[in-house]
């Protein structure tokens, strides 16, 4: 087992980083803990946005992880960045090929799984539901079947508040009706239903975390939200602030909200990951299936988020008013009492700090792409 030390540096990359000075001085002061009764943890989708932050947290706390990713939306560069912190096994494979996942369970002594791999863009799912059902449903089914065949019976699953659909009341609790209004939400609900049946019949225990709007970036290493075709609000605002190329669009200003723009529950990535650690611990301790909303309970409108970004950027950020996007509910906020009571999960990051971390990450991505261009 390794213990903690200085966060590793790499001249090429960290020279570009706004975090460099901070990092070179930073001694990670994480407390050593091991997840209750768990040895090797498989992370599917560990090269993606949320998965990579989870890998880092587990590495930081000396857990043994193996990452499985097809790199369709994740990045090899993120794996390399994580490996600078501590080495781990990375397997390139696709959950849609059951053989790939069978090999994994055959070759490694995996005890539990955190399943992030999947597609998650609502608009894309409306245009191309086929790839959502293949990746999210078929991929998950292959994983669960392989787990059962290999007697691995604990999983934390990335679900979403999109399974609730248009809310009947706010904030949304876990008992709210499930009536997703887009294929993305439907695929996640289908997987949740499979998990219920697999618990009943095969004893597969799951904790499903229904995320609200994940945002922000690591404050410790150079990882963050990195989609080739970005659709999310905070990265889009910051890209538009930092470059002249991207024009920010506000999708709809006549929603029945205080300023006419949509309200979402923005949950910091490091807080969100903390919920996964607590969920794994819960599975280890209680060997019981459960489901939790993971949001702050607070809501911010699109215009409020733009205004927070302007404070950090210290300049006005231009935007256009565009038509509403299909399938955007006016308000989504979480009732997170259950996660607080049972998991003892308390989100404690302020939105301004979350946006600052996203801003630093966007600057890093921008400088990185300039450096790549200069090479060619
Ligand atoms: N928005 C803009 N301009 C943009 C991007 C977004 O005005 O350039 C608005 C959207 O219309 C929406 C809000 O900002 O009102 C948030 O949009 P995001 O795309 O950032 O996030 P979503 O709420 O649409 O989706 C996210 C996840 C989904 C998850 C959903 C649950 O991407 O996977 O939260 O709310 F299902």
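Sequence proposed for the structure above (376 residues):
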């Amino acid at each position: 087992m390794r213990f903690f030390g200085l966060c590793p540096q790499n001249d090429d990359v960290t020279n570009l980083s706004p975090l460099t000075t901070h990092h070179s001085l930073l001694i990670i002061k994480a407390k050593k803990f091991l997840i209750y009764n768990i040895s090797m943890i498989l992370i599917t989708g560990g090269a993606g946005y949320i998965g990579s932050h989870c890998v880092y947290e587990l590495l930081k706390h000396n857990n043994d992880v193996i990452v499985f990713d097809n790199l369709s939306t994740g990045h090899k560069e993120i794996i390399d960045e994580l490996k600078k912190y501590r080495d781990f096994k990375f397997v390139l494979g696709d959950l849609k090929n059951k053989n790939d996942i069978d090999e994994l369970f055959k070759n490694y002594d995996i005890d539990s799984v955190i399943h992030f791999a999947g597609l998650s863009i609502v608009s894309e799912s409306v245009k191309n539901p086929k790839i959502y059902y293949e990746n999210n449903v078929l991929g998950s089914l292959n994983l669960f079947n392989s787990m059962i065949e290999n007697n691995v019976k604990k999983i934390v699953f990335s679900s979403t508040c999109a399974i609730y659909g248009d809310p009947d009341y706010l904030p949304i609790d876990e008992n709210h009706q499930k009536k997703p209004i887009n294929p993305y939400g439907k695929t996640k609900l289908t997987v949740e239903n499979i998990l219920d049946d697999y618990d009943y019949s095969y004893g597969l225990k799951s904790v499903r975390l229904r995320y609200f709007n994940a945002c922000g970036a690591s404050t410790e290493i150079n990882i963050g939200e990195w989609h080739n075709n970005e659709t999310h609000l905070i990265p889009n605002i910051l890209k538009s602030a930092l470059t002249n190329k991207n024009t920010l669009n506000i999708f709809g200003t006549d929603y029945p909200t205080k300023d006419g723009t949509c309200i979402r529950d923005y949950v910091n990535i490091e807080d969100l990951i903390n919920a996964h650690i607590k969920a794994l611990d819960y599975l280890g301790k209680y060997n019981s299936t459960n489901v939790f909303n993971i949001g702050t309970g607070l809501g911010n409108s699109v215009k409020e988020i733009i205004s927070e970004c302007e404070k950090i950027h210290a300049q006005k950020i231009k935007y256009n008013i565009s038509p509403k996007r299909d399938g955007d509910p006016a308000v989504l906020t979480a009732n997170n009492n259950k996660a607080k009571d049972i998991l003892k999960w308390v989100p404690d990051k302020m939105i301004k700090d979350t946006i600052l971390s996203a801003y630093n990450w966007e600057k890093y991505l921008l400088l990185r792409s300039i450096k790549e261009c200069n090479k060619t």
